[in-house]
User: What shape does this take?
Amino acid sequence: MAVKRTMGEHILVVDDEKEIADLLEVYLKNDGYTVSKFYNGMDALRCIEHTEPDLAILDVMLPDIDGFHICQKIREKHFYPVIMLTAKIEDGDKIMGLTIGADDYITKPFNPLEVVARVKTQLRRYTKYNTTAAKQQTETSEYDIRGLLINKENHKCILFGKELSLTPIEFSILWYLCEHQGVVVSSEELFEAVWGEQYYNSNNTVMAHIGRLREKMNEPAKKPKFIKTVWGVGYTIEK
Assistant: This one.
């Protein structure tokens, strides 16, 4: 029996034990989820072909095809979380399930509230992962500033056609300044962003690394073309 998606996130429940499937449906609906419920594997597969739920709960043992097969079919096209239900957890079964793409296992008998809690946990992880991935895809991975080309993906920095040999720290400093092009970045902000530690006024580390960066870039100390010092404030790469 399929339920139209009219509420919250869509959960697929597949279990040939009617009492268990019905119980999960009640608890999930009470928590605001939309539920598509099936008592056999073939009906569940037909549902998967036409809809994409946010999470699937699959019983391992079904009368026609097992939950592992359904999980494999899901993983051919989709990445949403899959929770397996099993009457007896064996190490071999668990390893197989995780290998083919299951995210979690719950052993019968179980408390329905535990299942709802596991569902929430998996959905949070999935949502967080996709949000981070989408953000990374939209972030700039390369800057080209007046002949200075810096690429975060391959960690290369090329100045007027010549590749610079930068240490990871030097690269991170230059990348941060390029990322904040047109903004004056204080030594404190630069140190804490690159080194991840608290900055102290007596710390000359940033100044020393800026000096080495300028040397490698053949930047004149008095009139640098790229990394400029704003005395008493910090450093900047102008737009």
Remarks:
- Residues 1-7 have pLDDT under 50 and may be disordered.
